[in-house]
Design brief:
With 186 residues, this protein is α+β, with helices and mostly antiparallel strands. 28% of the residues lie in helices and 25% in strands. The chain contains 4 helices and 9 strands. The protein has a 5-stranded antiparallel β-sheet with strand order 1-2-3-4-5, sandwiched between helices. α1 packs across α2. The protein is globular and about 40 Å long. The two termini are 23 Å apart.
C-alpha cells in the first residue's frame, strides 16, 4: 500500500510540488536549521535532494513528505518515512525523519507529523518497527523521538555516511514497535 498524503490536525504531509523547491532551498541555507545535518550548499544539490525523495516515492509508494501547514498552506519542511540509502542496521529498515524550518520549531509540528506518519507506516506498510536516528548532539530531535514513545538503543553508533572523526558522526538510534492487538501501544 502507498502513503502519499497524511493529514493531521494542523499539517498536510504530501508529495513534493515544484513550488516547494524554493522554500526548501531557503531552509537549507539556514545554518541553524541545518546544524546537525549534512549541508546542501547550492540550488542544484537542493533540487537533486528533492528529486531523490520523489524517486523514492515512485519506487516505494511512500517517502519523505513535504510538510505544509493546513491553515496557511506554508511549506514548513520534511516529515516522512524512507528506506535509508545506506545500511544503518543489519536488517532492512524503515526510518522516520523530519527537518523543519526554524519558524516552525517549538510548536509540536515534528511530533504531530512524525506520529501520524509512523502510524501510517504501521497501518499501510505492514512494518513491525520504525527507527529514527540523530546525532547525539541534536537534543531537540532526540527529545521528539522520546515524546513519540520511541526507545533508544543502549549504545551509540558511527553513522556510516560520515567520516569516523566527523563531529556529527556519533548517533543515537531510536525504535518504535507496532502495537500488537490486545496490547497497549509501545
Amino acid at each position: 500500500m502507498k502513503i502519499s498524503e497524511v493529514l493531521t490536525e494542523r499539517l498536510l504531509l504530501r508529495r513534493w510540488r515544484e513550488e516547494d523547491r524554493e522554500p526548501f532551498f531557503q531552509m537549507c541555507q539556514d545554518a541553524e536549521a541545518m546544524r546537525y545535518l549534512l549541508p546542501i550548499t547550492d540550488r542544484a544539490a537542493s533540487n537533486a535532494f528533492i528529486d531523490r525523495l520523489e524517486t523514492h516515492f515512485d519506487t516505494n509508494e511512500f517517502g519523505m513528505c513535504a510538510a505544509e501547514r493546513r491553515d496557511t498552506g506554508e511549506f514548513i519542511g520534511i516529515i516522512g518515512l524512507q528506506i535509508p540509502r545506506i545500511a544503518i542496521t543489519p536488517e532492512p529498515c524503515i526510518e522516520a525523519g523530519w527537518r523543519l524550518r526554524r519558524s516552525a520549531w517549538g510548536q509540536g509540528f515534528a511530533r504531530e507529523g512524525a506520529s501520524a506518519i509512523i502510524d501510517a507506516g504501521f497501518m499501510n506498510l505492514g512494518v513491525s518497527e520504525v527507527i529514527a536516528v540523530t546525532s547525539i548532539q541534536n537534543e531537540r530531535s532526540w527529545r521528539v523521538m522520546e515524546r513519540l514513545g520511541m526507545h533508544r538503543d543502549a549504545s551509540t553508533f558511527a553513522h556510516p555516511a560520515l567520516p569516523a572523526h566527523h563531529p556529527l558522526s556519533e548517533h543515537f538510534m531510536y525504535r518504535k514497535q507496532r502495537a500488537r492487538a490486545g496490547h497497549p501501544r509501545l
